[in-house]
Amino acid sequence: MAVIQAPPVARREPLGRRLLGWLTTTDHKKIGILYLVNSLGFLVVAGILALLMRTELARPGTQFLSPHAYNQVFTEHGTLMIFLFIFPTLAGFGNYFVPLQIGALDMAFPRVNALSFWLLPVGGLAILSGFLAKGGAAAAGWTSFAPLSVQGGTGQDLWILGLAIVGTASILGGINFIVTILRMRAPGMTMLRMPPFCWSVLATSLLVVLAAPVLTAGLIMLFADRHLGTVFFDASRGGSALLWQNVFWFFGHPEVYMLILVAWGIVSEILPVFSGKPLYGYRGVVLAFLLITALSFTVWAHHMFATGAVELPFFSVTTEMISIPTGVLFFNWLATLWKGKLRFEPPMLFALGFIAMFLIGGIDGVWMASPAMDFAIHDTYWVVAHIHYVLFGGTMFGIMAGFYYWFPKMSGRFLSRRLGLWQFWIQLIGFNLTFFPMHILGLRGMPRRIADYAPDRGWTGLNTLATLGSYVIGVAMALFFFNLLMSLRKPKDAPADPWGSGNSLEWATSSPPPPHNFDTLPEVRSSRPVYDLRRSRQGLTAGESPA
Amino acid sequence: MLATRTRRRWLIPIGTAFLCLPMAGCAEQPGTSQAQDVRSLYYVILALAAVVFIGVEGMLLWSIVRYRRRKGDQSEPPQREGSTRMILLFFLIGAVLVGVLFPFGEVTLARVLANPPPVEVINIQASQWQWSAFYPNEGIVTSGKTFVRPLVIEVPVDEPLHVHLVSNDVMHEFFVPAFFFMRNAIPGFPNDFTWTPTRLGTFNGQCAEFCGLGHARMTFVIKVVTEPDFLAWVKVERQTILRIKCPPSSGNKLHITAKNISWNTNCLAVLPGQPISISVTNLDAGIDHNFAIWNGIDTTHQFFATGKFPGVGTRSDTIQGLRPGKYYFQCNVHGPAMAGVFIVGHPKQGGK
To answer: Which residues sit opposite B293 in a β-bridge?
Structure first.
């Protein structure tokens, strides 16, 4: 709450009243901000856990985290980053901007919206409170493979409970987004005039509604095996250890796309705005989003090649096929830049960084899509490198682009450009120092999730480099938070369209928007209503040049 | 200014990627014929990846340098959108790449999974946190000792080696980096594969599927040796087992303690014809152990077993009806990683 203040009110209300307002709000914009603040809190926690892990791994030997502590730390790092930072951040942007972009007053179910937010800190704290439990927090990894996860203590139960709550929250949120997007669009805002960001939220919501219940089912089975005497995952009594993996990854792979689709949406918004051009192939991008959504349900077993228990050619070819629509996205982004007039504001830099880094995460995944090659690098640091090129190089750069892009709209204030540039370059360098060497560690056979390694394996130098890189990332993150806090003290001087080249409807209302979102809603006659508005104010019709 | 900065930003990933990754200085030399095939596949994918990487990053850099807005230029660039034909082309490019890549992967996969008639067979058992290896044809078994020393497996060079892999508790993964291969050890779901080691030497391996507290230390070593060396090693291993002897306990009262997934002894001896009382202490908190007596390391007939119970705790029991002879005991959860010789016989005969 300290990070972002309330939108302006006529007279400053007393603190208690304002706090109550935040606690009871059903305004999608305030809920969106609550999502973001909550997510940033968990980012700090999960980020510190990452630094602890990297510090332990810098040199061989156990220096300051025991293996049991290390196992808890990497489990909580993964769980919190995925379920309580990345996903809720994207949901926060979705909450704030989907109703604005489609010209709606609010979400379809404002009170359900508030509920799905408030479940998040509850679930997150349940997971985190494992550190206070006897035997410590969950320590079976964010994937919590059974039967290992049947063994753990109270921390594992808290993990199950917390994740079930967070999962419920995301299902409620997903339904809300789907109904909002399908039923609440302003006149003229046809589906194929919707900004790509809204499409990405719609696709993500479909994934959530279809996949998250499967995780919940798995969590219930796991809990039953732990406490109710069932044997779903106990092979010695007729169950199957592979059942958990099938259930988990049937959720878990669509989950990966839940974590990246919205970042694609954000980048697809930002590139046109700072290139001065429309998105090159709008329909191609939408089609790619939908194809990826569908295909993502057919690839889960590529996480299980090394089990020897899945149909290898099928899951290999579906996995490789996902690269086709993903490639279409890349080509569209590049073609959007082509012959544009590029302005390197911080959102644009992060979006370009996203393309450059996410590409690497796409390419190094191709090795793993081929089962014979996967047998050599699966469960090594290659996978750790891959997932971080996708989720940090991809999603995190996308999230940062989103913060710099929309912060003026949400707060009425610009984030410092200067600090933004510093953050970008430091983050880019730190990120590559940390995660690129992990590819080589993987090829040299360093398995993931080990608390320690022997000094004679040839892994020490690269691990030290990765640890230094992680501290550089820490500096970049500190700059980001410093920038947020400093900017909140600036005057609110952002105009309705702070970048001067917005396309979508959120730029047609004041910064920040009034509680009812729009005083007047511009007519929607294309996928770029604010661009049309700007042109008509200049007395020009589409196609003419203002020169 | 921006252009030079942007170029510099690529030095790190490009420098590392294109100096180390192509030269395979990153990975070990392949140790099996299957690993050689996988390495070739690595290069095929690398070639395709390089084309995509250079193409996309090159276009990105070009756009950044060439199409940046110049100072004072407020004019609007052409508002061009893509034609359906271009979008189709975008789909086609990816489809062609997949069409080229997939068959290469399948050919290599078929080779890696091929099952030539095995000359040597080993059964690998995984448990928290130790590996054990049975050689059914040679009748020997080897194991490491959890937290103390890793399992050492010797195999002959240039002979197809059939590995039968299973877990006794949670998911594990049998991984030898130089063999470019890993496979899960799964409870209740045995896995089989074949390696043909082509290079003499000692190769490090370790568990790659997170399996709890001792995961990082669940290592093993594969020694690829010549056929005569292998036969000599088998002989020594056999004699080691036969040579184990120990004095019988007084009054046939046995006590055995499990700690760190190891027994405190590898030999128990009693006098024949009298009831035997045994107390088993498990000091491994939260980990199941039991005590069982079998005919031998092939574990075809079980004479006695206590129930499994987690530590910390002690169970006492009575063993009856064992005829004089040499038996084999183990914890059924951890197999040969917790095993020894159980001798019923006259002390002077050494249990024979």
So the answer is: B304, B329
Q: Compute the average pLDDT of residues A463-477.
A: 95
Locus of tokens 């039967």: A147
Closest CB to B188: pick one of A71, A240, A306.
A240
A342–B67 CB contact, under 8 Å: yes
pLDDT tens readout for residues B213-233: 999 999 999 999 999 999 999
DSSP A394: I
Minimum-distance CB partner of A440 among B26, B77, B101: B26
Q: Name every chain B residue with its beta carbon within 8 A of the beta carbon of A148.
A: 170-171, 210-212
How far does B350 lie from chain A, in Å, by closest CA? 38
**Phi and psi of B14, rounded to 5°?**
-65, -45
Report CA-CA distances (Å) from A82 to A209, A252, A420, A448, B282. Answer: 17, 11, 24, 18, 39
Contacts A543 to B, Cβ<8 Å: 79
For residue A340 the two structure tokens come to: 């544009």
Q: What is B314-327 written as a DSSP string?
A: EEEEEE--PPSEEE
Q: What angle, 0 to 180 degrees and rounded to 10, lies between the N-to-C axes of helices A397-411 and A87-101?
A: 50
Interchain proximity A335–B211, CB inside 8 Å: no
How confident is the model at residue A141, as a pLDDT?
Answer: 92
Q: What is the DSSP letter of A445?
A: T
Contact assignment for A147 to B215 by CB distance below 8 Å: no
pLDDT digits (tens, 9 = 90+) for A334-388: 999 999 999 999 999 999 999 999 999 999 999 999 999 999 999 999 999 999 9
**Contact A324/B186, CB-based, under 8 Å?**
no
pLDDT digits (tens, 9 = 90+) for A71-127: 999 999 999 999 999 999 999 999 999 999 999 999 999 999 999 999 999 999 999
B60 and A356: CB-CB below 8 Å? yes
Residue A409 near residue A494 (C-beta atoms within 8 A): yes
